[in-house]
Amino acid sequence: MPVRHNDPNGGSIVHKGSKGINTGCGKDTTKFPSHWENTTAAITCNKDGCKN
Questions:
Q1: Residues 6 or more apart from 21 whose CB is under 8 A from it?
Q2: Is 47:5 a contact under the CB 8 Å cutoff?
Q3: H/E/C letters for each residue in 1-52?
Q4: Distances (CA, A) of 4 to 11, 14, 31, 49
Q5: What is the pLDDT of residues 4-21, one digit of tens each?
Q6: Burial letters for 27-47: b for 16+ Cβ neighbours within 10 Å, e otherwise?
Q7: Number of Cα atoms under 13 Å in the Cβ half of residue 8
């Protein structure tokens, strides 16, 4: 399931993974958990691990 990172400074990126674990590209969703939400949106992260 994809997970969306809602940046408090604006914008959002959808990563491969789910809330509570690391994303495909290595982002830790347990840091600032209020910034992350599970979603069904298409993955928009272009980093290795998410785009593959």
A1: 29, 30
A2: no
A3: CEEEEECCCCCEEEEECCCCCECCCCCECCCCHHHEEECCCCCCCCCCCCCC
A4: 10, 4, 14, 15
A5: 999 988 899 999 999 999
A6: bebeeeeeebbebeeebebee
A7: 4
- Residue 52 pLDDT > 90, yes or no? no
- List the domain boundaries for the chain: 2-38
At position 51, the amino acid (one-letter code) is K
Task: Tell the residue number behind the tokens 């290595």, with chain if given.
Answer: 26
Whole-model pTM: value is 0.90
- Token readout for 2 is 């994809």
